[in-house]
Specification:
The complex is a heterodimer of chains A (129) and B (170). Chain A has a single domain, classed as mini-chromosome maintenance (MCM) complex, domain 2 (Sandwich), CATH 2.60.320.10. Chain A is built from 2 helices and 9 strands; from the N terminus they run αββββββαβββ. Chain A is of the alpha+beta class. Chain B is mainly alpha-helical. Chain B has one domain: Arp2/3 complex 21 kDa subunit ARPC3 (Orthogonal Bundle), CATH 1.10.1760. Chain B is globular and about 55 Å long. Classes of the chains: A alpha+beta (129), B mainly alpha (170). Chains A and B meet through helix 1 of A and helix 5 and helix 6 of B.
Chain lengths: 129, 170
């Protein structure tokens, strides 16, 4: 490691620390939370996270995802994608989103489906909001 | 270096990258998407020093497209290309500069590979908040880059026969 190698490393770590500190954090518990679903060519209303239900997303290209909603959170229950990353990303709840790598999101990249935990005004939950 | 020798060396390096890419796909490092060793970066880094930047870009494109068809899908090629172009640009700008060793170039390359992929994901998924994911992916990329840079550094030091052949040619 030469001198400027350390400089590169330093700036990288500084930048990621900034991003890390700015990332969406746990919201106030009394706030109502919703699930926002984004899928190509389809639009979904916000889903209130208060009752258990299953949501099936079928796309024209054969992509198939099943979301399991439970009070306070959701999880990708089923997907016909190849890598199954979205299943492994596990549950999202208000309590665990601060410690998840993808914070408030579950993403199925192959099927282009994004699930996000949001507040009622559709903004991503901000720190202390 | 003779053109034929350069072509041969570039082809060998591409072959090595394909094998490494295949091996990496067999042993995922983590279930979190976007995290893998990126050993091909070591090869590209050596390539910058040995066959030049231009050949390296060609090698990277060939490797990405071939590996994409072998293991993934067209979308994966797009993600990889974005990462590859950014990463290789950074590495070729840094490699050989004063005060920068292959390790520093490797770190920058590893980080920018992840930046490129997240940027494409942000565009395709229309989800700008994905940028926060970089807070985790960038240090991971730096760690992997440190590893691949060190490997490249060691390999270049311990593969002197190639340089000897080169000298005999000239």
């Amino acid at each position: 490691m030469k001198r400027r190698d350390w400089l590169i490393l330093f700036f990288v770590l500084l930048f990621s620390l900034a991003l890390f500190l700015l990332r969406p954090q746990t919201a106030a518990p009394e706030m109502r939370t919703y699930l926002r679903i984004t899928a190509p060519g389809q639009s979904y209303p916000l889903v209130a996270l208060d009752t258990a239900q299953e949501i099936v997303i079928d796309q024209e290209n054969g992509a198939h995802n099943v979301i399991s909603v439970f009070p306070g959170g959701f999880v990708m229950a089923e997907s016909n994608c190849k890598n199954q990353d979205c299943i492994h990303q596990g549950q999202v709840t208000v309590d665990n989103m601060g410690s998840r790598p993808l914070a408030n999101q579950i993403i199925c990249l192959p099927n282009k489906v994004v699930l996000e935990l949001v507040s009622a005004d559709e903004r991503v939950l901000e720190l202390g909001s | 270096m003779k053109q034929t020798r350069k072509l041969t060396l570039a082809a060998i390096l591409v072959a090595v990258m394909l094998v490494l890419g295949y091996l990496e796909s067999l042993f995922p490092v983590s279930p979190v998407p976007g995290i893998k060793m990126g050993l091909a970066n070591s090869v590209l880094l050596i390539g910058i020093y040995w066959v030049g930047v231009r050949a390296c870009f060609q090698m990277m494109v060939v490797k990405t497209v071939l590996l994409g068809f072998m293991l993934g899908n067209p979308m994966m090629i797009l993600y990889s290309l974005a990462g590859g172009v950014l990463s290789l640009t950074a590495m070729s700008l840094l490699a050989g500069r004063r005060g920068v060793s292959p390790i520093g170039a490797g770190i920058a390359g590893g980080v920018l590979h992840n930046v490129g992929q997240v940027a494409v994901a942000m565009l395709i998924l229309q989800t700008p908040s994905l940028i926060y994911y970089l807070g985790i992916l960038m240090p991971v990329g730096a760690g992997m880059g440190l590893l691949t840079g060190t490997i490249a550094n060691m390999l270049m030091r311990h593969l002197p026969p190639l340089k000897r052949i080169e000298k005999q040619e000239d």
